[in-house]
Amino acid sequence: MDNRLKDIQHGTLTESRMNSDFLFWLKTKGPNYLLLAMLVLCGFMGFNWWENRVAVARDGAWTEFLSAQTPQALIEVANKHADTDAISQLATINAADAYMQSIQMNKRFDREAGAADAAVTPELRAEYLAEADRLYAKVVSEGSQSAGPRSLLTVTALFGRASVAETKNDPPQAAQFLTQAQELAAKTYPQLAKVAQNRKETLPQLANIRDMPSRPVEPGAPASTSASTDNLLMPMNMNAPVEPQIPATPVEGSPVVAPK
To answer: Domain-by-domain residue ranges, the chain?
Structure first.
């Protein structure tokens, strides 16, 4: 019986000593560990907040890119989001494409379709070509110059520069850009390399392209007397058939034909 009481007293003293040690640890070391745990929790919450902020900023950048319609708006997006994915390169290429599309459609991008000054003047055409070539060249200089998936935008910009040279009727310059595109795309994008080769083979045909009228002739429209549409379908040495004239008085010795 005495041994059991001694064991109980010893256990009580041990538990009391452990509680005292734990309380002493909480008083001396507990605040430090609690502060460390709070710092870890705050760091985790801050990391999640930063990730959400980056995702929201990225979504906003892509939304701005998709909503931009004019070259000026696209260039602004490219400058604003230069470090977000490939938005800068894509926006720059789209801006250059918009200039080229205006030239091909003979319609200014900053005018309504029915406006009197909607057509692209020769001065604007030269300006648009220069600006498109500058934007394509910017993507080429800043893009990847080694074969790989990242070279796709560079190849696209080289095709754009070739289109500008073709529009200027400069086959040697176009062939140079197409050769660069072909070499860059040969390993990763063999289909694009084949397209570049085919375009180089058709460059001599640019010399056979004749100037087209300034605007198409609508069906049923009256014949125009402007210089741009005269004799488009008729050789220069041919004249339109002239209706024979009937003399007012019959010639002597010729039979008289009674009117029907």
So the answer is: 1-67
